[in-house]
From TrEMBL:
Upper lineage: Eukaryota, Metazoa, Chordata, Craniata, Vertebrata
Membrane-topology descriptor: Single-pass membrane protein
Xref: InterPro entries: 3Beta_OHSteriod_DH/Estase, Lipid_A_modif_metabolic_enz, NAD(P)-bd_dom_sf
Subunit structure: Homodimer.
UniProt-recorded name of the protein: Sterol-4-alpha-carboxylate 3-dehydrogenase, decarboxylating
Organism: Sphaeramia orbicularis
A Pfam family it matches: 3Beta_HSD
Keyword set includes Acetylation: yes
GO biological process terms, semicolon-separated: cholesterol biosynthetic process
Length: 346
């Protein structure tokens, strides 16, 4: 039988470390003196102190070699939420997460696993105001992404086992934004460039959480460093946001105007746009064998744009001393400045 080596506490692995959040997390971990192994299907960059292991998280052998001598694992890999490939979400988020758990348990004596979940696991397209972690999981998840994020979070929290020395925690961010984000700002600008950002869905007063990426990273590192057998955070989920709910359309307008595009002005009734988005989504499904088109206004995006959904961070404040490190205003300024290539040309 192979001898088990107690891993170095300053070596950690980031699964999905080539992605937007993953790379910000890797950079902060390096600053804090960790040596980092990145496991991802692609290598997005190079950094001193980081070793890359290319592979699919569904492949246990590949994972085991990346997790060698590692005592702390962050799992922030996922297919893009905009995908409609149900099979891929099930394979990566559910089967893949099972494989990650097995690999962690097999790889060491004491391993901590920090999962990036999502506050959307409780969102069903209806208003949520200051929602706490006691809200039940969505009974009717709004898309495959959310459906599989729920299963993923359940698997990770259930696997927490102090006896076996396997400790887990889930971080639930919402609406992550910041430099190098491949989704929010690029999709917004693309929609504006195609002349489709003229309308406000609903009355425009709905409050939403957007979270600057460095605050999400801060929440992950606090959780990792406080995850001990005697800590109250074992096996629990934590909302991590900017703790500054903002009107969805004010946030969008500030980013658009910051990049030189006009803010949306005309109002459309929520129910009308949601109905149209649903119809388009159904059409895209039916016609998929013949033509392939991806509607910009998906039912999920319309629901996110037209309802209140903001979450309480009280549990993270109490159990881990969480406090956002960058304000929303500062986060927006830094984000806008980081996208010179997306500015409207004069
Ligand atoms: N972006 C957002 O607003 C929010 C994101 N999240 C969660 O945060 C996490 C990180 O998201 P982002 O950084 O925005 O996404 P991203 O798409 O930039 O990064 C995901 C990374 O996972 C990797 N990956 C995908 N499938 C893989 C596989 N089978 N094996 C190994 N690596 C694989 C990708 O190559 C990519 O580098 C995800 O779990 C996502 O569900 C949660 C709440 C909000
Ligand atoms: C076309 C416009 C109506 C909206 C453009 C902006 C959107 C692309 C983003 C606004 C809120 C974002 C968001 C996510 C993705 C990008 C947005 C829809 C998530 C779905 C990403 C994954 C999650 O876990 C939850 C996020 C909620 C907010």
């Amino acid at each position: 039988m192979a001898t088990r080596v107690r891993p170095s506490s300053k070596r950690c692995a980031v699964i999905g470390g080539s992605g937007f959040l993953g790379r910000h997390l890797v950079e902060k971990l390096l600053d804090r003196g960790y040596a980092v192994s990145v496991f991802d299907i692609r290598q997005g960059y190079e950094l001193p102190g980081v070793s890359f292991h290319l592979g699919d998280l569904c492949d246990k052998q590949a994972l085991l070699s990346a997790l060698k001598d590692v005592s702390l694992v962050f799992h922030c890999a996922s297919p893009a939420p905009a995908s409609d490939d149900r099979g891929l979400f099930e394979k990566v988020n559910i089967q893949g997460t099972r494989t990650v758990i097995e690999a962690c348990i097999e790889s060491g004596v004491q391993v901590k696993l920090v999962l990036t979940s999502s506050a959307s696991v409780v969102f069903e397209g209806k208003d949520i105001k200051n929602g706490s972690e006691t809200l039940p999981y969505a009974m009717k998840p709004i898309d495959y992404y959310t459906e599989t994020k729920i299963q993923q979070e359940k698997l990770v929290l259930k696997a927490c086992d102090k006896e076996k020395g396997f400790l887990t925690v889930a971080i639930r961010p919402h609406g992550i934004f910041g430099p190098r984000d491949p989704q929010l700002v690029p999709i917004l600008v693309d929609t504006a460039r195609r002349g489709k950002m003229k309308f406000i869905i609903g009355d425009g007063t709905n409050l939403v959480d957007f979270t600057f990426v460095e605050n999400v990273v801060h929440g992950h590192i606090l959780a990792a460093e406080r995850l001990r057998p005697d800590s109250p955070i074992c096996g629990k989920a934590y909302h991590i946001t900017n703790d500054e709910p903002v009107r969805f359309w004010d946030f969008m307008s500030e980013v658009l105007v910051g990049l030189g595009y006009p803010a949306p002005r005309y109002h459309l009734p929520y129910i009308l746009v949601y109905g149209l988005a649903l119809l388009l989504w159904l059409l895209a499904m039916i016609l998929r064998p013949l033509v392939s088109f991806k509607p910009t206004f998906t039912p999920m995006r319309v629901a996110l744009a037209g309802t209140h959904h903001y979450y309480s961070c009280d549990r993270a404040k109490e159990d881990m001393g969480y406090k956002p490190v960058v304000t929303l205003k500062e986060g927006i300024t830094r984000t806008v400045q980081s996208y010179p290539h997306l500015r409207k040309e004069a």
